[in-house]
Amino acid sequence: MTIEEGSYVLLYHSPQKTWLVEVNSGKKFHTHLGVLEIGEAVGLEYGSHLISSKGKKIVLLEPLIYDFVMKSERLTQIVYPKDLAYIGIRSGLTSGSRVLEVGTGSGGLTTYIASIVRPSGHVYTFDVNPQFSAIAKKNIRKANLSNFVTFHDHTRFDEANCGAVDIVVVDIGDPWTMIEKTYESLRPSGTLLAICPTMNQLEKMASTLTDFGFVFVDSMELLMRTIEARTGKTRPAMRMIGHTTYLIFGRKAEHGMSDEALQ
Description:
Structural class: alpha/beta
Radius of gyration: 21 Å
CATH topology of the largest domain: Rossmann fold
Largest sheet: 7 strands, mixed
Shape: globular
Number of strands: 15
């Protein structure tokens, strides 16, 4: 695939030295590895390379959704890839899914969800902070996913008409307050999930979901440790990504049909 004017490219020198930049004619990119003439990437194939002013070879990679999420501008903490992957499979997220998200933040999770639901699905996302929404819109636009996301003001949630959705995602400080508000929008058997940074939030959310009649309510914390794979001396990395958040899921059933009621 050819790199075009205005497209994004991931500049790669090593796993620890990567940059996500927009390609424009005449643009220069300054790094400690030297100055790179970004404009010279126009017309090249992804996978080719440029040479910096210090003679360093920089590979031009086509960005993945992973890169757009991890290199996103942010004013808030983002949901990490290890959690994104599990959210996708556990919630039933697929192409064509309709998703209601409460708590856009910087749009990391929004970006991932939109990349999965396209081309026929949609994400309806809400946030109370206009500054957060502005950053999220910019991040979504970079990933070329704007057509699959509609932004709303959280304070006007009751006025938004999203229709029936397959999944509800809640990422705010008091997620239990959104269960009743989103219940009617969630289709029967649909998934509601919440991002809970603390045990206290997780405990109250689990209790409220159960009281409201959700079934298959379960919670988890995901840990990830990378491996330094080198000939003759492969070992686990000294550092790892530990706690980022707790995840809790529930499936919509009839009122009163909780797991406890089924026992």
